[in-house]
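Narrative of activities, Objective 1.

The group set out to show that a structural description can be obtained from nothing but a protein's sequence at a throughput compatible with the screening campaign. Below is one input-output pair from the validation batch, recorded exactly as produced.
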Amino acid sequence: MTAFIFVAVLLALAAAALLAWPLLRPRAEAGGPPPPRSAIAATLVASWLPLAAFAIYFWASNWSWDPADHAAQASAADIRQMMEQLQSRLSRQPEDLEGWKLLGRTATVVGNYPLAKEAFGEAYTRSQGRDPDAVAGFAESLILNDEREIDGQAVPLFERALELDPDNARALWYGGIIAYRRGDMTLAQQRWVELQNHDLPPDLRQVVAERLADIGRAQGGPPAKPAVTVAAVPQPAGTGANLTIAIAPALTEKVPPGSTLFVIARSGEGGPPLAVVRRTVGSWPVAVSMTDANAMLPGTSLAAAGPLRIVARISRQGGPAAASGDLYGEVGYDFSSASPATVTIDRIVP
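Output recorded for this entry:
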C-alpha cells in the first residue's frame, strides 16, 4: 500500500506539471514572462490538484486503512492456505502423524469440526491408539461433532489418553467433566487440580476454579486450593438470555419443515460449546431461552464466562456441527447483561 501511495503522489505531481506548464510558458508572440493571472492559475493548479485528487480518492474509496482489518483478513487467508497445503501434503504422505495432528488442531480452531474429526481419526488410527494427543484430540472431535459423545465413545478414549500421559491437559479437562457428570467428585477434583498446573486461558481457569469450589462445598470441606488464584466474579443466580432467532427472507424457502435448530454459546476464541439448546423449527421467529441449565457442564455460570458468541444454526444432518449447506447466523453476547438479543440466520456454510 505504501508503494501505491508513492506512485499516486508522483502521478498527481506529473498531472499538475502538465496543466501548469502551458500557463507558465511565455507567449510566443511576446517572448516575455507569463501574465500575473496565468502565474496565479498555475500556482493554484499545482497546489490544489494533488490535494483534490487525494480528497476524492479517500472519499470514494472503500479501502480500509485500519491495519487490524488487513491483519485479520491475512490471518484467515493464511490459515486456509496452510490447511489446503497441509491436506495436499498429507494426501501424498499419509503416514505423517504430526501432520494429521496439526491439521486436526487447526481445523478445531477454525471451527471445521468434521475435518478435525477426520484428521484426528487418521492420527488415532496411524498411531494405533498409542499417541495421547491423537487419542485426546479424536475424543474431543467426537464431542464437538455430537455433544452426546461426552457420555459415549469419547469416555474410554479420554481414559486411554490419561493412561498414556497422566498430564495431558485436554484429557484432564474432559476427564474431569465426565467424572463430574457421573457424580465422582473426588476424581473430578483430582483431575482439575492437576489441570490448574497448566497455562490455561483465563475463562477456562475461572470455570475450573468455580467447579473446584462447588466440589469443596458439596464435600463439606474447604474448597480445593487453586494452583493460581482467580478472582471471583459475583453473578446473579440463574442469569440467562431471552433470544429471538430470525431468518433472512431470502433463506426462508431453504428451510424444510421440521428442521433442527441448534443455538450454541461458545467462547469468542472458539473451542467446545459452553451451552446448547435444540429446537424443531415450525415458524419464524423462534423464541429461545438459554440459561445455566443448558450448560454442557452442570453448574457452569454463563454470566461468569465473559463475552461469548451465540450461534444459531439450522442443521441439514440433525447434528450441532457445521456442515456444508447449513444455514446460520451469530451475534456477540454477554450473559451478565441479561438483556434480550436477536440472532438473524443470514449465511450459508460453504
